Amino acid sequence: MVASKELTDDVRLAHVMADDADSISMSRFKAQDLRIKTKPDSTPVTEADTAVEESIRRTLSRTRPRDAVHGEEMQDTGESNRRWIIDPIDGTANYLRGVPVWATLIALEIDGQIAASVVSAPALGRRWWASLEGGAYTGRSILNATQIHTSRVSQLSDASLSYASINGWVESGRGQGFVDLMRECWRSRGYGDFWSYMLVAEGAVDIACEPELALYDMAALDIIVREAGGRFTSIDGEPGPYHGNALATNGLLHDIVLERLRPSEAG
């Protein structure tokens, strides 16, 4: 079991790294001369993505030199039972178009389990964080925080669903099931990326799901949803952020959503 004091120190460090990340990313947000490249997987990366990850890695090399690091933009470093998982800017496509829905995701994995995280969205003026058995919070800082909880909605007909895009669901073979789920829910909106999952944690949305994601997209979101009282699994029901896709709910709706998302020939 991870000591609570250890996690408190790690969460504080994650906030410090998020502060630095916010300063870097906001300084280049909407910059007319923002430098953008296309990665081998055809996704965009900006100079801010790289600069934020470099900043976080520099801090970790000083403060947690024995810890491993896994990030989106750079090679893995270190071998340890403690691993930091970083997405420097989740929502890069929004960032480069001037849409304020993007965030830095910082998670700490200990012994194969996500134990703490911070999600910071400076253009929205929002931040969320959690630690194992420590609850989930939102606020400007640790000293200015409100604990958050998932909703108590128990029927799909009363539920709000958030997603990123339709295309991935069609390609996954679950397209018809996802469309049927949208129709069965009270409301569906494409908030997308990290924000869908933070809205689940806050109780503003009841279901969030995506058919294709990387570990760095999900690690920081997983524990915040769980510590807020929800469930975070793959779309096949496997716990955690390690399976290439995600379903987060308030917990009460989880099993029925898994049933709706089972692949079918018609997907």
UniProtKB/TrEMBL annotation:
EC number: 3.1.3.15
Keywords (A to Z) from UniProt: Hydrolase, Magnesium, Metal-binding
Residues binding Mg(2+) 2, per UniProt: 90
Enzyme class: hydrolase
Superkingdom of origin organism: Bacteria
GO biological processes: inositol metabolic process; signal transduction
Coiled coil, from the record: none
Swiss-Prot/TrEMBL cofactor(s): Mg(2+)
Sites where the protein binds Mg(2+) 1: 72, 87, 89, 217
Annotated GO MF terms: histidinol-phosphatase activity; inositol monophosphate 1-phosphatase activity; metal ion binding
Reactions mediated catalytically: L-histidinol phosphate + H2O = L-histidinol + phosphate
Described function: Catalyzes the dephosphorylation of histidinol-phosphate to histidinol, the direct precursor of histidine.
Gene3D superfamilies found in the cross-reference section: 3.40.190.80, Fructose-1,6-Bisphosphatase, subunit A, domain 1
Pathway entry: Amino-acid biosynthesis; L-histidine biosynthesis; L-histidine from 5-phospho-alpha-D-ribose 1-diphosphate: step 8/9
Record's protein name: Histidinol-phosphatase
Gene: hisN
